[in-house]
């Protein structure tokens, strides 16, 4: 591919690869470590997942500002150095067995990670031609899909072979390699500082909040857009539940002795399902309206999640997970293809800026509830699956009653605008 002739892109691509590796391996290894050493307190593994999602809520309003206003290369590089230093502290904290310190370091490391990818993605945009953006986006999506499919397996393999200390050491080396790759890039100032040089003292938190306020007001006024954004919020519930519940299911019900292996198979099944669903969704997207690609798959997902709690066979569990992933693919395509048609280009950034925080808020809330409920109040994991299934079912019913009407109203509005523009163009031509 021609894009790989760009040495800066190759270095940034591999920097993102090692950065993601450093994040994924340690996070998954820690989940297995906590379940092994504190099996009588499963809430620890849930709280660890919470440490990865909560930082988004705290830093989301300044992440974009930092990536746009400061030297993007230095931001991405310094993220790696800071995470490497935090990983050293994490390595030391393992010898003290201080759970609060471990959670604090995981929280800080996750917070720093939130700044890396916006800066790195912005650098990639600055060094490529416009016709290469799609290729770069596809390669990055493939990169994250690979880690989604194999991330749990890699973390489990590292934990079983070299232990938690070895997994943390791999994290450290990964961040160092990523930082060195970014430092070696020769990137022009126009890509690093597109808005000119800015100091911290010139950044106004108030202006950042104003931008996000404009975005949320725009969302609220557009009922169809608000409904789609609500879909991302629901995905947060799903992500939060499935970040930890399958691991609990394997550890405490289906396979206590080999739960690491089967937790890896869960991630592979879900990831392959997502890839399959995305392919099918792309093929049938032109034959169905976006709301049709959302309502039925969400309804089917609710039934499948219910059956996850009901089944006691690992093979059936993994098959159901694969089908769930296949259902999620068309939903992602429908929302992703619908959003650019609804949102004005000038407000796309501000609207998009609300998606990740809303998802992380829902994810954090779900993880917090699981930590509180299981196993002190709810002793059976099955009940948690039934609760998640009920929430998803309600969402599918909500969409079934609202989206068709909102979609029709939006299409009528678009037809009126197109007719008005066509008439205006005809008048100009006649003059």
TrEMBL record:
It holds the Pfam family MFS_1. It is found in: Cell membrane. InterPro entries: Drug_antiport (IPR004751), MFS (IPR011701), MFS_dom (IPR020846), MFS_trans_sf (IPR036259). PANTHER family: MACROLIDE-EFFLUX PROTEIN (PTHR43266:SF8). CDD domains: MFS_MefA_like (cd06173). Keywords: Cell membrane, Membrane, Transmembrane, Transmembrane helix, Transport. It comes from Metabacillus endolithicus. This is MFS transporter. It is a multi-pass membrane protein. SUPFAM superfamilies: MFS general substrate transporter. Gene3D superfamilies: MFS general substrate transporter like domains (1.20.1250.20). The chain crosses the membrane at residues 12-35, 47-67, 138-158, 164-182, 224-249, 261-286, 293-310, 316-338, 358-378, 384-406. Residues 8-407 form the Major facilitator superfamily (MFS) profile domain. The keyword Membrane applies.
